[in-house]
Amino acid sequence: MVRKFLPSVLAAIALTGPVAAENYSIKAIKYKNNGAYNAFFGIELQGTRGTYPCEGSNTKGSGIKSGKSITIQLDNSDGSLISTADDDCTPHLGQEIWGVVYIDRGAGWSPAVNEQSCRKDNTKFYYDPAGGTLVVKSKGTTENGNRCRLVDKGNVHYIGPIE
Questions:
Q1: Could you give the 3-state DSSP secondary structure of residue 15?
Q2: Alpha-carbon gap, residue 35 to 65, rounded angstroms
Q3: What's the 3-state SS for 2-57?
Q4: Distance between CA 139 and CA 148 in Å, rounded?
Q5: pLDDT value of residue 142
Q6: CA distance 51 to 72
Q7: CATH number of domain containing 131
Q8: Is residue 2 part of a domain?
Q9: Which domain holds residue 36?
């Protein structure tokens, strides 16, 4: 019985192919620090010249303490993003965006930082002012179990142009 069933299961798996990416529209990212550490949070953008980081200005200083959270408005209406002469950190419609958690290991900002990307392989987030709020969190300790986890995708599917 198992011998007859197994080939049909394997054939069904082979026919399904790779999992399609889910695309979501977001206008803000909320980060929750549930870890046993201070963290800093920033965003990264995918653009015509590759990936580039933008630091969340409201995460500087003492960082985000355990049990606290921040929300970054991606249109920068709250002034939470820093733009330098070289980088425009305000995303454009259809630009892929994700968060990055910087975990302070207790020796100051750099180089004692553990960086955890919130970018996921099959779930992509694109800036759209009509989008939802992406919620991510991290937990664990400075060394273990501290990956960035998706909590809420914002529930607005993205169907517009992708930059």
A1: helix
A2: 9
A3: HHHHHHHHHHHHHHHCCCCCEEEEEEEEEEEEEECCCEEEEEEEEECCEEEEEEEH
A4: 8
A5: 80
A6: 19
A7: 2.60.40
A8: no
A9: 20-152
What is the C-alpha separation between 64 and 29, in angstroms, rounded?
14
Nearest one of 25, 32, 14 to 151, comparing CA atoms: 32
pLDDT given for residue 57 in this prediction: 46
Q: Is residue 14 part of a domain?
A: no
User: Considering the entire predicted model, what is its pTM?
Assistant: 0.77
Predicted confidence at residue 3, as pLDDT, reads 56
For the chain (163 residues), the mean pLDDT of every run of 10, in chain order, is: 53 54 90 89 76 58 82 82 64 89 67 74 90 93 84 82 62
Helix (H, G, I), strand (E, B) or coil at 42: strand
Considering the domain boundaries, does residue 160 fall inside one? no
Residue positions counted in the chain: 163
Is position 157 within any domain? no
d(CA 143, CA 40): 16
In the chain, how many domains are there?
Answer: 1
Can you give the pLDDT at residue 9?
47
- At 68 the pLDDT is 92
**20 is written with which tokens?**
């399609």
DSSP state of 19: P
Long-range contacts of 84-91 (CB under 8 A, 24+ apart): 87/52, 87/54, 89/43, 89/45, 89/54, 91/43, 91/45, 91/127
